[in-house]
Amino acid sequence: MKVLVVGGAGYIGSHMVKMLGQQACSVTTLDDLSSGHRDAVLCGEFVQGDMADRALLDSILSKGFDAVMHFASFIQVGESVQQPAKYYQNNVVNTLTLLDAMRAHGVNQFIFSSTAATFGEPQYTPIDERHPQQPINPYGRTKWMVEQVLADFEKAYGLRSVALRYFNAAGADPEGQLGERHDPETHLVPLVLQAASGRRPHISVFGRDYDTPDGTCIRDYIHIQDLCSAHWLALQSLVGGAASQAYNLGNGQGFSVQEVIDTAERVTGRKITVIDSPRRAGDPARLVADASQARQKLGWQPRYADLATIVEHAWRWETRFDKSS
Ligand code: UFG
Q: Over 80: is that where the pLDDT of 2 sits?
């Protein structure tokens, strides 16, 4: 199978490229390296470029592909509020350019990275696919817009897709070759581990007055490898002729920010300095997925559902240059 991975040099994309290579797919990665890393692309062909570049897309897609996986989005909620134009341009307009190029070259199978942020403030948890989608920030709206575009494209053009709504992707390649390398880093697990390793002086806890048992926000952390295996199964389903679908992806178990810190202290054996800070704007108290659709329809079974394992793999990545640990 020939797969184009757009954004394949980023955190999730690079793990996916590795998995596709292991599944004997012929992989081409397109990435502009604005946030990705060339050395994270472990197999296949690599093309440095922008998905907004239609001529480049034409030249790549003219070689013939079975499917496209799209990971090339901006993902920071706060930044999306400050700079919505940047988000609508990249996440919506440039995605349309990609979809148009696919149509022109007869590539009709598409895997899309969507997000729990399309749901907005939860009306109930765990969140299943029937939960209303009312995003509360531009980032979530861009993803929700593309989901709607995809539904229309299937009806009009027969372009079939799977939108995977990630809850909180975390962890690292169990073999230690890949991990999270965002700059700036905003995600809880890597930040907590950087505080454990001494790369940061402390971790700030954004709010202790939420309506949760310990007052800190609850999230559903999903191992990057399990996320990728869901993409692989989604791709198989499309290749098998399945209609377009959206799936929520999480473990169905929520952990509070404090529980993540406690787990990190246990896994690393280090004391982590914690500073209590005000709430971060736009953080719902509790986001937990009901992923039973993915389990039933895709046959997805998370392998690393245990938070300690997720943190352990991320810690191995955080300390990869540290010979003493
Ligand atoms: N948090 C802290 N301190 C930090 C960083 C995060 O307390 O230094 C807290 C946050 O307030 C939140 C939790 O840790 O309660 C998780 O925060 P992350 O930034 O790691 O993840 P989010 O839940 O905000 O974001 C994730 C994805 C986004 C996506 C969002 C959808 O990373 O891309 O889910 O809700 F938009």
A: yes
By the 8 A CB rule, do 288 and 167 touch?
Answer: yes
Phi-psi region at 7: left, alpha or beta (left = phi > 0; alpha = psi -120 to 50): left
Q: To 5 degrees, how large is the angle CA 80–CA 83–CA 86?
A: 90
Render pLDDT for 30-39 as a digit per residue (tens, 0 to 9).
Answer: 999 999 999 9
- For residue 169, what are the β-bridge partners? 222
* Farthest CA pair distance, the chain: 58
How far is Cα 49 from Cα 34, in angstroms, rounded to an integer?
10
Give the CA distances from residue 169 to residues 15, 98, 135, 184, 238, in Å, rounded to whole numbers and listed in that order: 12, 24, 19, 16, 23
Reduce the DSSP state of residue 92 to 3 states and report it: helix
Identify the pLDDT of residue 324.
Answer: 53
CB distance 26 to 44 below 8 Å:
yes
In the set 87, 139, 166, 210, the catalytic residue is 139
Q: Which residue among 133, 280, 310 has the greatest number of ligand 1 atoms within 8 angstroms of its CB, and so is best to mutate?
A: 280
- In angstroms, what is the span from residue 218 Cα to ligand 1's centroid? 10
The pTM for the full model equals 0.97
User: CB burial class (10 A; 0-12, 13-18, 19+) of residue 261?
Assistant: buried
For residue 167, the ligand 1 atom closest to its alpha carbon is: 34
139 is catalytic: yes
What structural domains does the chain harbor? 2-169+222-249 (3.40.50.720), 173-220+252-289+303-321 (3.90.25.10)
